[in-house]
Amino acid sequence: MQRDDLHWFLTLAELEHVGEAADRLNLSQPTLSRMLARLEQRLGVQLFDRHGKRLTLNDFGHVYYEHAHRAQAELDAAGRELADLASPALGAVRLAFLHSFGARLVPELIAGFRRGSTRITFTLAQGSANMVTTRVRGGQSDLGIVSPRPAAPGLGWRELLRQPLALGVPADHRLAGRRQVRLAEIGDTDFIAMHRGHGTRTILDNLCAAADFRPRIAMESSDLVTVSGLVAAGLGAALLPLADATTRGPLRAAAQPGPTQGPRSGPVLIPLSDPGASRAVGLIWSADAVASDAVRIFRDFASEWGNRGSLSSPAPSTAP
Fold this sequence. Notes:
The chain is α/β, with parallel strands linked by helices and 320 residues long.
């Protein structure tokens, strides 16, 4: 395995599309195809099954991918350890997280950490749960904050807090005055949902399947604030966090997340009584990577921070 093969091969293996990988790598498609052909010729096997420009890793490709992934992680770890040795008082943490955690959770977490470790710097990346998981597995990020726990193999996990979920409805909705609701009661309602690949969408699909119906998706977004605004405007219902993930006090059954514009208020949040109507928010990292001292220190701090938070406890009952 040659060092130059790692980055482009891992990118191609994860995207499984020559055009998309070439764009990501800033290469022409013919150049990337020739690089793949040379690698396969050197190895003596084909790594992908071809379907036009769409590729699928075959059994040989999966074996090579796992070794390439571990090799990249080791080389990245070596670079970080050398940097730590060269500047022992400094360190860096590459942290990826969901968009919805950027308003309060991540700023509060980093602010608390920096009060005791001001020489450690952060590089931040935001996106969907799939993006965060891919960055951590691929070595582009040291740690990720996601929800729910990813099913992808090769990841470490520490739960930071558990956040109750609610049904968000417009203020004039027929259920707006309820103290609790079951999803089965609103099976005929239009839903505003996150795009597939986002953690909240996965939870919505799973909860609806458990309630024996398929949600009727009217609109999709990649931002919870936008989802909340669409619900408040009367365009549907949505699955939303019952309280901000970093709230350090009693949970609010009538919270109105996100900014408001003009006289319109946010959506009404009705706690769900369905089993499993909560999302685990946790920290992930690659089990194959050797963490730097800075990453280990921050990971331990985040675990302690989560244990101190009031949202790690079950939500209080809101039943009449």
